[in-house]
Amino acid sequence: EVASDAGIVSSVEKQPNQVMLIDEVNFLISATKNAKAGVHIAMVTSTLLKLHSSSRTIYKGKSYADREKLPVINQPSVSLVGCSTPQGLYNALSSTDVTNGMLSRMVLFDAGDNDPLGGSPKQMPKPQSVVDWITAWEKRPLNNNPVSMEGGHQVIDPIIVPMTDEATEVANAFVSEMHQAKIDARRRGTDTLYVRAFENALKFALIMACSAPTDRKSTRLNSSHL
Hints:
There is one protein chain. This protein has helices at 5-14, 25-32, 39-42, 44-53, 86-92, 95-99, 128-139, 165-185, 197-210; strands spanning 17-22, 58-60, 72-74, 77-82, 149-150, 153-154. With 226 residues, the chain is mostly helical. A hairpin with a 2-residue loop joins strand 5 (149-150) and strand 6. Helix 1 runs parallel beside helix 4 (44-53) and helix 2 packs parallel to helix 5. The radius of gyration is 21 Å and the shape is globular. The mean pLDDT is 83.
């Protein structure tokens, strides 16, 4: 549970790469916009936005008289996974979330009306495909900070995922589609929703390409990922 912007920064200082799981995230969004909310809650949104924008660089927190208290985080990678009822989320969001860039950094998933009937648990064998997947990932080296140096040399060898020509064509077509959608939405004041559409699409494609722990030399980004 997020209690303050300082709490977020303190947590990310200890673990720069993390996933924050928040249930009923609509209450947090509403609290950050409450006129009676304290500064420690009101600053949560701006802190998350700054951390997101600092993922390729260095995040520096609030300045204090004691310079040793200045938080400095190298390439923070913070993902927030929040759950909410549809109505609760819609009520919490406002036009400000469109213009300040928060919604453009979010991806919304609708769980739909699928509500299967539950049943008694059953003892079932472990799927071998899942065992192989976990075992393969366990054998891969940890992906440490790529700018971390040891004796003047990088600690790790970053994985390079090239794009096929077909994937590049699909990506370029998507860029054109989103550019036109952004222009059409400008008169409604919602054009910022499309600013990061291509960036988000590439992230999902990269996740799909790297989701199976295969030989790094054979990992490629093709049109099926896009």
